[in-house]
Amino acid sequence: MIDVYKQLQPALKAGETCVLARIIRQTGSAPRTVGAKLLVRADRRTVGTIGGGLLEHEVLRKAHEVMTSGRPAVLEVRLTGDDAAASEMICGGNVDVLIEPVSSEDTGAASAFQALDEMTAQGRRGVLVTVLAEGRRGVLRAIVTETGRVIGDAPERFKAAGVDPKQWAGTRRFALETTAHGAGPLVFVEPVEPEAVLVLFGAGHISTFVAPFARAVDFRVCVIDDREEFANAGRFPNAERILVCPLTEAFDRIAVTPATYLVIVTRGHIHDRDALRVALTTRPAYLGMIGSRRKRDLIYAALMEEGVAAEDLRRVHCPIGIAIGAETPQEIAISIVAELIQVRAGGGLRTPADALLLSDTRSARGAVPGS
Question: Can you give the pLDDT at residue 354?
Answer without folding.
Answer: 44
